[in-house]
What does this fold into?
Amino acid sequence: MFRVLAVTAALALGAAHPRAHAPAHAQDEEAQKPFTENVADAAAKSAVDKFKADMKQEGESLRAMAVRTVGRVAHPSVVDALFEVATRSGDKAETVKVRTEAFKALQRQKPSAKTLGPRMTKYLVEAAEENRKRKAKGDYGVLVDPKTGKTDYTSPEGKAALETKRLRGAMTAEALKILDTLEHRDDDAVDALREFLLDGNDELVACALTLLAKWKVWAALPDMQDLYEMYPSEDQHNTGSTAVDTGAAGSGDAQAAKRAWMSKYGDPDRRRARPVLVRALRAALTEITGEKFETLDALNDFLKRPDVKKKVKAK
It folds into this structure.
């Protein structure tokens, strides 16, 4: 029997607000109006109050429009409201699609970069740690047969689990873009970025590579080396084996090796050619090192140089 190993965002459906709402097309037109800066506190409060009322609507698309509408107002109170929607977890968490819209809206809040940047770093660090914990428990974001260890992404349940994982990856990519658009660098986020390189979402991995390259993170070169080995060209991918020596008797090593393999290759979205990732990877390697690596051997030889090893080990 299969078991679902994916985290599904819960719907936060408040009671419908008694006042009449504008038609969906009218709200969407409102959301597309120009971005407004230097908004007075009173006007911002009015926008946030309307936003909170609109978020009580039952339609997911209507709540997404409410996010886009308030997102065109630049003000710390708007940032607080959007951040709460984007990052709230538990039973009152919004849907992943609405949270994704909130992260997109936060990308425009450049006037609040000094306060929003650190908050986003903290969120991303915690999200990466949750990823690690899930994988440590055997949750790879897909449906797995506990007897065979094989992934199922063809049954209705398997497809639903895979879609949840993909939506989560797309949402995290939008969250990462906030650090980029705000030009906020925080070394505390480096380990989180390296964790996200293991995701099957091309855009998320490309965003992580872009930031690591802009920040000149030499310590991430071994991670990029692993990616190069898996994706040597735009139309190729390699799925390797893993060997683990736990020192345990019996089947301990085999079970540990299986867990290690699933942690690295369990996501079916990693087991395919990924041209977007390959292009981002090559660009990141060049931006960090100033070198172009036409082959994996060239990169391997480069990483063996004493001066390069020193840079990679430096924090």
Notes: Residues 1-184 form one domain.
